[in-house]
């Protein structure tokens, strides 16, 4: 990064947030005002406070610059600031990070409670590779988890919040067995309310919940019906037989809502041999929104195979991974710089109102 760009970043944030963001007086963690303290000899305290200050600026930026097809410089900068905080090896243990995550998931519940959709779909990005999609008739969850995979006490969202979110959903699709995609507490909350959970047969095998999981046929050609809302409606689903690596079954559902809008979330799809069916998806079906794992095998080829109207990536900054495998937003930007489809990067708790292909050309 050259000196001119660094100066531009400093000036932008000075204009946006004013000198108070950098002064030696401000709001302390307890909400009291007074001179900022020094942290000589307190490295952990220093890093905690640095995360808090940075994420406060991130919150303000995300409010001012929400997801949009034409992305302002300030929004991209905010996402890269998140990268910086979350690539601290101790990030999931830091109170500022935990509060940030919890507040972002509270935003999801607020959005589900307050937002009805008349046209298109509202899409929320959750932790890791989780998404919730709502149309005028249905609400579908993909790989919804609590955050336990981060491996830090205090990081996962509380069970009560999970239950409230689940009450707003009609079905859950689980891609594969790994804990950053499959959370038995979440699945049980769906089952308790009589709502279907679709997963590969090996997920939770040997546990009591397994017999209550829906195991659709993994077939590239067959369109199956999934009853929801106590049988009053149904989803049409093509369940592609994906894999993570060579041996782990990874469901890649293509879900059609009653309105005819289609969504596919790829889980940890990462197998070169599966391009035999990936390359043919668009030849057989129309895909409106593709939600791939950002680190998938040859993401450009995957996008060409699905040929979606819009790409929204997932799996950035999984805190249960080592720092080098917490794929940052900047890496996703690098990978998608030549994308053949419009794409959006969202962080935890953000939403985007997809209104169809006509809205893409009008932005």
Report a brief summary of the structure.
The chain has 363 residues and is α/β, with parallel strands linked by helices. The protein is 33% helix and 18% strand.
How many discrete structural domains? 2
Mean pLDDT: 91
Low-confidence spans: 19-29
Helix content bin: 25-40%
End-to-end distance: 30 Å
Biggest sheet strand order reads: 8-9-10-11-12-13-14
CATH homologous superfamily placement of the largest domain: Ribonuclease Z/Hydroxyacylglutathione hydrolase-like
User: What about the largest sheet?
Assistant: 7 strands, mixed
**Order of helix and strand elements from N to C terminus:** HEEHHHEEEHEHEEEEEHHEHEHEEH
Q: What is the CATH architecture annotation of the largest domain? A: 4-Layer Sandwich
Task: Tell me the layout of helices and strands.
Blueprint: H1 3-17, E1 25-27, E2 33-35, H2 43-64, H3 73-86, H4 95-114, E3 121-125, E4 131-134, E5 139-142, H5 159-167, E6 171-173, H6 184-192, E7 197-198, E8 224-228, E9 233-244, E10 248-256, E11 262-265, H7 275-278, H8 281-284, E12 289-291, H9 299-306, E13 310-312, H10 329-335, E14 343-344, E15 351-354, H11 357-362
Parallel strand pairs: 5-6, 6-7, 11-12, 12-13, 13-14
Antiparallel strand pairs: 1-2, 3-4, 3-15, 4-5, 8-9, 9-10, 10-11
Helix pairs in contact: 2-3, 2-4, 5-6
Question: What does this protein structure show overall?
Answer:
- The structure is a single chain.
- The chain is of the alpha/beta class and 363 residues long.
- The chain folds into 2 domains: 3-93, no CATH class; 107-362, Metallo-beta-lactamase, Chain A, CATH 3.60.15.
- It is 33% helix and 18% strand.
- It has 11 helices and 15 strands.
- The protein has helices at 3-17, 43-64, 73-86, 95-114, 159-167, 184-192, 275-278, 281-284, 299-306, 329-335, 357-362; strands at residues 25-27, 33-35, 121-125, 131-134, 139-142, 171-173, 197-198, 224-228, 233-244, 248-256, 262-265, 289-291, 310-312, 343-344, 351-354.
- The longest helix is centred in the first third of the chain and has 22 residues, at 43-64.
- The two termini are 30 Å apart.
- 41% of the residues are buried.
